[in-house]
Amino acid sequence: MTSRTSKTKHSRENVAETVARISGITYIQIPSDDPAKSAAFYHAAFGWQIRGGPEHQSFSDGTGHVIGAWVTDIPIAGEAGVLPYIYVASVDDSLNAITKHGGQVLKAPYPEGNLWVATFRDPAGNVIGLWQDTPR
Description:
Low-confidence stretches: 1-13
């Protein structure tokens, strides 16, 4: 499925080598009406590291290069707005984990050049993409 090798905790000492990348997307706020449920979903489906408590659920993605939090004060993105994509080792395995943990496949895997791409809706209703660059 996804790379789960990075267990990096973000501190002042390692922020420059992980998150603070000039011109890189490094922080994302993901809308959710239930941040704890969203955190559990992304942890189970992608192995994201979760931090914080009931009042603030934050994360590091599987690479440790993107951090963020689930927030309740912005509307669920749905199909509107920016569509982020998560790079995975296997779109099929990832979609199986997504549906197992409460997500919904929106667009089944399809080829895009040499890539395989798909989209899903997370339990909060946000639409997110997946892609892999290896044969299916």
